From TrEMBL:
Domain of life per record: Bacteria
Record InterPro entries: FCP1_dom, HAD-like_sf, HAD_sf, TIM50
Listed SMART domains: CPDc (SM00577)
Pfam families named in the record: NIF
Protein name stated in the entry: HAD family hydrolase
N-terminal signal peptide: none
Residues in FCP1 homology domain copies: 2-163
Annotated source species: Aquimarina mytili
Gene Ontology MF, one: hydrolase activity
Keywords, comma-separated and alphabetical: Hydrolase
Gene3D superfamilies: HAD superfamily/HAD-like
Amino acid sequence: METENKILLVLDLDETLIHATEQKLEIDFDFQYANYFIYRRPHLEWFLETMSSHFKLAVWSSADDQYVEEIVNTIKPESIEFEFIWGRTRCTTKRDYTLDEYVHEKRLKKVKKKGFSIEQILMIDDSPEKTKDNYGNAIYVSAFEGDQNDSELKSLAAYLESIKNTLNIRSIEKRGWKNKTV
């Protein structure tokens, strides 16, 4: 597959790639950022390196921009170049009356403005409320909270490899992705 035809994987950070907490867990943390203990999701480096050979990669988190930039620069393998690393300032803040809180939504029209085709963008996130307007482009993973036996990235990699040549990612039913390959 030609580089310019690769699907763009937009990866969430907190509870998708890492777990950050002010309360130290009973396991060793990977590193600290300010008052946070940071735990990498198991298989993270392997996942990023493997996916980079099949997809373009980006990170978009609803967390503070500086936090996102520094955490991503710490966890990324040297060989990986992200298309972009975005934080909260690229999100759209919207009131969710069902949850009775403000949600920082990730709207794909902002990614589209960077020249990416909406049919070739996949968002990987643990929070459906942040990507609800982009459900045709989203794959929801279970939240990572430090479990060192977690194998979500291994399962996700197998699924993503099965859909890497799809021309219109929106045409694939992604609900229940853990139980299927295309």
